[in-house]
């Protein structure tokens, strides 16, 4: 245990006893952030000349992340006062220094993704996992750096490579750790309003990814990749579903325009998660439906004007919401739903209309499972989303009324019960917010019937306990107002083309017709011992597996993790 028996080598290296601590730290940081694998850009130069800098950068990066390892979950701002490396890192404050570090991150993270006309003509580095760990630590120890990253669109240069790796690794169980750290970083970023606003920047596809072709923003890219992970990812990724949807909930109040592709993907997720067999098969699956409904509510209440694609998709798939509202809760139907369950995984990406899947980007390759025999390090379980996040108001001004127990899962307020104490402008036009802590509400779960002492069985009382809290009011009101109007215009004008309906919805308004806007609640990442342990294990697992040749670990007794073959 590092608390009782810290690593003495790291302790000495980062302590005041080491007179060279400052020059060592700055040298390591400069070595990593100044490295440019491409150099002058001469094609195939990495094949003609040996790059002596890469092994140095690799080692420097690994030393950096190891020496910066410290548990910040205790809430102590003077974290590890004896660790001078953490002290120096947290005190970096000049914009030019932040720019230098961020340029280094974006250059190296995007390097493996660079496309060239000549195949394999540029050098590609493979230490993206260590880079992501270092980026996490940089944001964790230096909040000014985090705010600097979010201040400009440069954050998208971090987002795109993360999404690429998430999408590419989704079927490979040896890269589950990479999936987790990518999602954790996005969860951290999504807790800040600026991240949601930046996602509205149009996305130009420069990297072939195995996702449907779309024209839209970085928000569309985020949703499309998340949908791909959830519907076609490895089964060990299921614990991440809460995190993925929490990220979307956090950014949803700021998304001005979603494409038709992203809108369809969101509705498909709701369709998949709201099937009775899925809802009844686990005591926590209904949380996913609450998250998705909160996403829809946020967009409808705060960004209705630009989201005609989503509104149209909601109208088209209105039966999903009606089915959810009339979800049966009697014991017979519950039992019947569970016995009729034929598939363990979510439905395929084709929606219920059996429409063909949109073709993937040109030049992309499908996500492949791990090669047989691939080594992987075991990882501890990650804590639940409720332990990883704390709730804050996303509003700019005014104290919000405390959200009571009538709030939906994880504290999302029901729109018609908890109005803001002041009228609040649309978030996209707001100034940077000063978060107000909001008390998290809890869902009261009725006891379920244990079978054989361990197996969980849903009961009618349990279903009724959360079904009554489903935040469907806003969507039902939208359908109540718009469906008759759309049907009337279709009949009157004989419309069969959806573009005309979209044009009608673009000019429509629901001002004064919807319930009072609910408060925006942001679930911010908060440090906890569970993720600290996870990061430590993941970090050492990477270092172990990246240094098996030569066999420096031979005959060592590693207790933090096990090495397994896929």
From TrEMBL:
<dbReference type="Pfam" id="PF12722">
    <property type="entry name" value="Hid1"/>
</dbReference>
<feature type="compositionally biased region" description="Low complexity">
    <location>
        <begin position="419"/>
        <end position="435"/>
    </location>
</feature>
<dbReference type="GO" id="GO:0005797">
    <property type="term" value="C:Golgi medial cisterna"/>
</dbReference>
<protein>
    <recommendedName>
        <fullName>HID1 domain-containing protein</fullName>
    </recommendedName>
</protein>
<feature type="region of interest" description="Disordered">
    <location>
        <begin position="338"/>
        <end position="391"/>
    </location>
</feature>
<feature type="compositionally biased region" description="Polar residues">
    <location>
        <begin position="347"/>
        <end position="358"/>
    </location>
</feature>
<feature type="region of interest" description="Disordered">
    <location>
        <begin position="409"/>
        <end position="435"/>
    </location>
</feature>
<dbReference type="GO" id="GO:0000138">
    <property type="term" value="C:Golgi trans cisterna"/>
</dbReference>
<dbReference type="InterPro" id="IPR026705">
    <property type="entry name" value="Hid-1/Ecm30"/>
</dbReference>
<dbReference type="GO" id="GO:0016020">
    <property type="term" value="C:membrane"/>
</dbReference>
